[in-house]
Batch of 4 targets.
Target 1
Amino acid sequence: MELISPDFGFIFWMTLAFGIVFFFIAKFAFPVINKMLKQREEKITEALEKAERTHEEMEKLQAHNEILLQQAREERERMLNEARQSSEKIIEDAKAKAKVEADRMVESAKESIENEYKAAMTEIKNGIANISIKVAEKILQQELSKDNAQMDYIDKIIKDAENQ
Amino acid sequence: MLFSTQNFVVAENKSDEEFKAGEVIIEHVLDSYDWHLFTWKGHHVGINLPIIVINEGRIYSFSTKRLHDSATYVTTDKKTGETITFTIPHEGQYKGKVVILGADGSQKRPLDISITKNVMALFISCTLIIVLFYLVMKAYQKRGEKAPKGLQSLIEWLIVYVRDDIARKAISEKCVDRYLPYLVTVFFFIFINNLLGLIPIFPFGANITGNIAVTAVLALFTFFITNLLGNKEYYKDIFNTPGVPWFLKFPLPLMPIIETVGCFTKPFVLAVRLFANITAGHIVVLGFISSIFIVAKISMAGGVGMSVFSLILAIFVDVIEILVAYIQAYVFTLLSALYFGMASKEHHKE
């Protein structure tokens, strides 16, 4: 049957035509296509790897940043604490100093008041003594003529003084 | 694939002749010397392809037109001066083929390498494939490593598919590059010819991959590539199969005979499978279309009703044929790849 018996002429042309197609694809088209496909695949793989690496580096960098940030935070905390402490100390010191100073001032004021008081008392005493003396003098100068009374009075004073 | 409506129109016009569906279908799936397009007012309109025959070392070439309707073409052998008469008989052993008519009415078949309808269609499809690959190659050269575009991306998808899902799965990594160009060629050749065979409009629609000569040549290519590039281990497997009892090899070399026969049956099966699948598809679609004309002979209304029914079925089968076009290309390529893989694999050292 013709359907299943291959015709020689057609086999001949088929071999020729398919041979040409095969030759063209195998010799020219396919090497170019295959080369480009391979190159592109390599490029894609490379790019992916690069992206992966970059990602890892980024993560590392981020972790590093995190550590730095943590350190900075701790540093700040520490500095704040220190500042607080030192300010407290300064205040404390100042307070203590002020207290000492105030005490000292109060003390000296007291002392000077005492001194003043003493001096004033002495002065008053002196003044009173002087006045007394002057009064006494005046009285004495006035009353010296009246002998009896004068003598009585002096006696009385002496007696009073002796009684005291 | 409805190309054969052309043939049916012929059959219809020859009103006194009976419509023979079987003949029309077989006529389509076979080859012919001219490419019939349609019939206009009783005249055949088609392309008269050249007949090329070789007789006793001399090439004769003339148009098919000269042999239409049982006409004879008479020429003389320039060397011997003998008259040679060519004709195409309508019956007998050489029905529908160019023969040399002897003086006593005997028929002798010369070496026939005519550009028939199938050969013409083959040239057209091969040109298409070469143009396709040329364009894709240029696209690659132009675009370099950039992402593929348009036609390039469609072809690339198929090439990558053949490479990754067919070749690399069947053949060891080291040998893939050696076989890949052939596998790509054979895949595209079968796939494109299958698809073109489904297009009913000229210059497509010929039954190329459903021709045993085409599939036989493809299978022979696979056969030669398998056996010529086969390694030592492959031949050792054939002639001294390991792991088989000695009495199967000596004194009667049973296993070597079976293995050697296997080498030939593998490509034979490849050829028959592709041929049978594609031809069957064409025959089924034509059968549905033919049934319209058969019913229409009996009653016109029946013909109209039948045409709707048959068209739906024919379209359905055509759609399946598109799938078959791909599957058959895939199967042929995959089996070729498996044979190559077997012929090139390195055994593990025991």
Note: The longest helix of chain B spans residues 254-298.
Target 2
Amino acid sequence: MPKDTGIGASSKRREDVRFLTGDGNYTDDINVHGQAYVHFLRSDVAHAKINGIDTSAAEGMPGVIRIFTGKDFEAVGGLPCGWQVTDRHGQPMQEPKHPVLAHGKVRHVGDPICAVVAETLAQARDAAEAIELDLEILPAVINMKEAVKDGAPKVHDDLTSNLCYDWGFVEENRAAVDEAISKAAHVTTLELVNNRLIANPMEPRVAVGQWEKGTGDYTLYTTSQNPHVIRLLMGAFVLGIPEHKLRVVAPDVGGGFGSKIFHYAEEAFCTWAAKECRRPVKWTSTRSEAFMTDAHGRDHVTRIELALDADHNFTALRTETYANMGAYLSTFAPSVPTWLHGTLMAGNYKTPLIYVNVKAVFTNTVPVDAYRGAGRPEATFQLERVIDKAARELGVDPIELRRKNFVTEFPYATPVAVEYDTGDYNATMDKLIEIADIAGFEARAEESKKKGLWRGLGVNSYIEACGIAPSNLVGQLGARAGLYESATVRVNATGGLVVMTGSHSHGQGHETAFPQVVADMIGIPEDMVEVVHGDTANTPMGMGTYGSRSLAVGGSAMVRATEKIIAKAKKIAAHIMEASDSDIELKDGKFTVAGTDKSLAWGDVTLAAYVPHNYPLKDMEPGLEETAFYDPNNFTYPAGAYACEVEVDPETGKVTVARFAAADDFGNIINPMIVDGQVHGGIAQGIGQALLENCAYDEAGQLISASYMDYAMPRADDVPFYSVDHSCQTPCTHNPLGVKGCGEAGAIGSPPAVVNAVIDALQRGGKNVTHIDMPLSPARVWAAMNGATANEGAAQPAARDSGSAEGRSLGGQV
Amino acid sequence: MAKVSMRVNGKSVSADVEGRTLLVEMLRGPLGLTGTHVGCDTSQCGACVVHVNGKAVKACTMFAAEAEGAEVTTIEGMANADGSLGTIQQAFQDYHGLQCGFCTPGMVMSAAALLKDNPKPTESEIRHYLEGNICRCTGYHNIVKAIQAASGQDVGAIAAE
């Protein structure tokens, strides 16, 4: 029987009411008295030397307050990188300076050169058009494999090359992996591209900077997933503003998907310019600016080899990946292709030997960083594609090949440094087979055939590491931050509670789900609990929301703080009822003394805490407010199995997703409705990656997918209804709620399911196509069907538009 | 600058705006109706959909001056007279048809226009109609369900296929 309140209930979201009535408070809805507007004049070329900037004509134009260039920011720090990766020779990565406004050179289309502050946005734009730039165009490097060749133009003249790092993991295993592969009964090799994507939250980024002359205090309103992180990075490393003089507010935020984790130049500019101009300064990104300034995602080019013995046991795995960093290191960029990717290469399988090599490369493109899943989709895609190819080569059932190699005993220490605490991969596969009605596939394929369409089935498993992350571990891995989370629980005199959390909700529904937990623990109605988030002035220092961490880490902090509240409240109740606090029980919002009929209501005790007339003042302080910081012991490991059925039109190459099913194990569930919604959204983004989305640069570094006219976002008629299930639950063993996190799973598990399905359809249609690079646009599918017997790079003309895809055929075909 | 007057959500309003001011800019700026959102600059995303003289319009595609004398309805005008959520709004909450909420005003306004013309749309008709509204959070599953529910159709019957 579904619950109607508390943990496990599909409580309707309370935040919806303001979003549905136009009463949300997004950053662009905030207008500060006296604000001016900034427009950034950005580079329209990928790589150039700035020989001169003439602002004289622009300065006299109506409404112009001040025009800033890179020179104005010489004394200001660069945008910092929060993760230092050490390469396989023990050397730190190359780390270039990332100025707020370009200085000396521009390094990607969209790099800001000048900032025009004016009375109105229109005036700022008009003035920017009157600025004369003298740019000396330089050759651009776009293709990663070209970028690391000797003699390639350098993105940063002061670095030794365009190679950020050459990472090996686990380096000590390298020789053993090589040997196992050379001796294997069968080796399946696959070259693939994980296509470059743009996160595209529907709300573009906004920043409003404010400086109070009277107090010297700064406030930044910004579209962020982690306001405390922005305060620390911007205050300490860029502008030199101590945290106690800087408040960062991230109010209602319209989606993030990773792209709003990072500290961006526009935030630092608006904050700094507010003091320089003695005016609040507001910037609202256009969508075109978002395409050329929001950190991009993915963009890996990989060769993977899977070795199997004669019994089809996986014996070794070796991958070599080129990972695009773009022109500068975004906040967490170096961690994505390394620690968020290499550590997941075991997948759901007991492969004993694994070696991962990653070469991170600077190119004249927008910085690349975490996008929904961040590294884990890249790992899953390689693994689940190569397994599918191996099954086809060996003539075995792809599900059975997976089952044969599943990890079945927990805890399981992988050869890539992580330990899975719990899971049941056969259970999610069984559930998937049921909800996807795989038994009915052949009949549906026959129906498709009658319509002249080829139907294919793709199945895969996935695992991810969430609940990021144990601070001491990530510190060893190069993180320059801790990854705990915080919560303060304040109980008011009349019994209502406020949870002030370091987590941030930008669509995840924390305002509804977090109170379900606290209300359940105390036994009071959910509407007595309110969540406050997104403002450094009234929340404890927290690391924010990404990596499916809010409930697993932030929720755990909230539970710990609530436990402290309950422990103190029991002592107050024990004093009033003249009992031992060990005899006090709290249930349904009522304190009772075991074995007696004495009781006190929750509100009686909370009132006593603040009106302490009958109170153990000698032993305890009055008041009822507790803070907890929670640092996880391990990652959490959500896992599952996904199935996609597609129909391919052999005449046009068009792929239609006919069915999609997802069986996930997220451990315990707080709000099933919200969990379903998270999975739905992730699946749509994964289908988007697999079939539609591609961030494309031409050879000169021009971004040719810079609007929704050119970047294909999934629309309602591109996707079907999804069948999702999360009834397989192996609770996380190391956090108090037993939760694992669900935000990224859909985007991680779905791309290989779609591609596997398309390859299956083509094979069933008699075409020996073993791989097509994403996105599987009609042009690429048609070319693969008609131009070659196997996956030839040349058979995918559309792929050549993407700089990174260009070099994918290096290393040869198998 | 010129004075532009119109009726918005049943109230007569006016503002001095430039000739190049878009309807969405007038709504969000001088009129303070920030429920209508701007998600792109190419009239693709649909976050700014309002009704002008009863028709769904992307408020970034017309100048404010073009709405002179028009009857405009925005998301702020969609609740019931007593302030409770209207049928479509309520269905979006009941079926979890929104997450971050940014595309939601446009989705609700488009859904209202659809149901006015086609009171019992099929799944396919809903999906096709929403091609001008992009949502990045929900994968559309629950938006389609919400609109079917708002039209009085049995949503419980919706399965994977």
Note: The CA atoms of residues 564 and 626 of chain A lie 6 Å apart.
Target 3
Amino acid sequence: MATKKFMFVNRKAPYGTAYALESLEVVLISAAFEQDVSLAFIDDGVYQITKGQDTTGIGQKNFSNTYKALGDYEVNKLYVEKESLEERGLTQDDLMDLVWEDEDDDWAEKPSIIMVSRSEMADVMAEQEVTLSF
Amino acid sequence: MAMLHIVNKSPFEKVSFRSCLNHAKAGDSILMIEDAAVGAIDGTSFSEKLKAAMADKTVYVLGGDLAARGLSEDRMIDGIKSVDYAGFVDLTVENETTQSWL
């Protein structure tokens, strides 16, 4: 099967709507079909990967740990927009430590999160062949 | 006639929170639930707008919605009160009317 560059653009906070969870499901399906998958976290999408999410008070399943498993599916390009964090009073320290293991480098753990500016994000988006927005 | 305004949309995504602040009267209460909970955090592009409203209104947040999004209560704007679902019910009883800003 031909491999294409897929980007999933995540723009909404988790739990208030189903978008974040639905995106995650399609990301995993795309990875299973061995596509070149990237994720973009912009606007309220940055809340999807904050650390310390605790859903006990709202009676919903906490799916934030699923982001930590993405590396095992060779989904290891998670672009996060700096401006979106700043507008929300957040920094990279507020995000989960998401990593992947590089089998070509003795399984060294490498960061999956790539911090980019808004203009750099636009460049990454322009390189994609398929873009799905959530 | 004190009113409870219930907001459930992120102030960074929709204008409903701003519209609520523009229409709420002095003495009213505002409760942030679901995605609106992210508006409780200080040092954001929205926090000054909410602080201005807090001069004559009381602002609450559903604590469970804040925690679900990985945000701790010590990052809230000073003066915002965190409530649980029982507190949510109390607010609807204490206020004569409620308005939901969907």
Note: The longest strand of chain B covers residues 3-7.
Target 4
Amino acid sequence: MARLSLKGVKKRFKETEVLHGIDLEIGDREFVVFVGPSGCGKSTLLRLIAGLDPITEGSFRLNEKLMNTVPPSKRGISMVFQSYALYPHMDVYENMAFGIRLMGLDKPEIDKRIGEAAKMLQLEPLLKRKPRELSGGQRQRVAIARALVRKPQVFLLDEPLSNLDAALRSEVRLEIAKLHQDIGGTMIYVTHDQIEAMTLADKIVVMNEGRIEQVGTPHELYESPANTFVATFIGSPKMTLLEARTANGKLSIPNGGSVTGSAPDGAGETVTVGMRPDALDIAEGDAPEGFGADVVYTEYLGNDAYVYARLADGTLVSVRAAPKTYYPANARITVMPRAEALHYFDSASGARL
Amino acid sequence: MTATSAKAMTYDNKGILSTLGRDGLLQVILIANTVLMLFPVVIMVFSGFKSNMEIFNNPFAVPDFANLSNYIDVWTQTNFVRYLFNSVFVTGFSLLLILVLGTMAAYAIARYEFFGASFLLLFFIAGLTLPLKLAIIPLFILFRDLGILNSYWALIAVYVAMGLPSTVFIMTGFIRSLPRELEDAARMDGASELRIMWSVMLPLTRPAMIISAIHNLVPIWNDFFFPLVFIQNDALKTLPQGLTSFMGEYTTDWGVMFAGLTLAAAPITVVYVILSRQFINGMTSGALK
């Protein structure tokens, strides 16, 4: 059992406040991903949970027990660091044994745990090697194994894939997902990569500038983003935001065409319309219904093609199209949004309508 | 003759720089410098195998290396062994203290945020600018009052004070460059601060410790001034000071003295070579990723 509860958590470094009151509940066995741009405070939050930095204000409870002043090693939490932080002068076995030896376990138990972890992560042939003799992926697995042998209630992973190349990244991502199924602990995973977040998480916490923007399942975040930040952060290529005028059952942009559709209640004269690349169709030339646009370039990805085009008001819109689609630069097209796939946000606050 | 071949001619006449190249010229200068530096050393070693007569008649001649009488004299007729022991003890103990204290101070300055940390570092570095020899008279009075004149401790205290600034400076910079996540990892593993320093950080600071050791070893071993002032008891004299007692008021056995000098220089040279190799190993071991 591991339930984490953060209430009004703030963190200040000297004068600058980097976390402005975080409230978050994490359930047992959940795989939670903190995602956000660099400097949004996600790693700081992780370090507060780990106990590596003190919490300035607010409370952090693990299974109803206040953890604010409990030292890191007594929290039942393990952490995998971005740089792996393997002890360079110790071999793989010693790296894993260091922590559990300090826990006061006896030799047979230490050997047993290391044996299990090594088997699970295919490290058995590497136990006598030093970290410098390992490849990036192997180091990564050692770092995970070192966290594993402590049998923690909560695993923290700080951008664990950022030092791996692309091919290895998706491989290790799968391994981490499998690991979570096998050992069933609560996992908190920090990343700035939304694909990692979408594929791994039970629950995603989107952070920006020291605040939580939205908490939800990958599906919720993609389908009903709470505001324009989440809307543009989740999904690739990102959602196009358009300032549109609402009148007479039409959404229009000046000199740029219009589509039939009405903004939900609460919208003012203008509304921010969010269009994902797959919510748009393309027609060649000008059409009565839709926004006229000039093609900037076409991106061919094999199974898809993305057409980037500029609308009359200067907005760059991305459209997913069939792979054989190709439009030369400056070709005139009309993009036609499907009404049911549009997102509406308040123009002033950016909040979902 | 065409214009191009005329041009080629002028390129052919660029002198030594073009025949040897820049690197070649550098080599020549370095070799010349090496000869210059090693010459007195070679003469010292040679003279150790000669009698006074031979030294003055043929100062540059290659001696009979089988003639070890000077070395036997140094070892048996003089207090050389005693001086050697004193030097080893004083140098060794000073280095040990410098490394232990310097590393601890540097670790604290580099890793813990506390009020006055940067002032403390500046304070240590300021020590680099102080010529300790200027303080010789107050030091003498201080040591006299402390009752440690004429003892090893007078020398060790001065050497440690001399060595700490540079050591703290070198070690602080190095420890700051070590990844902080290593400490965090050890903290998560439940290691106490002392264990983190001992089991995780210290093994990684070895290259910097060896630099500090080399940096302090030679000046301490060769120091003549402080023993001269602080040590009167012959049994406590270090090598450089002890060797001067070979110079008599009326006669000096130069052969024996050079043999002594050679023996005095030998251990330090060996240690230096070993430490340098260690240092290079440390740098290339990839300890820092």
Note: Helices of chain A lie at 42-50, 92-102, 107-120, 136-148, 166-183, 194-200, 218-223, 228-233.
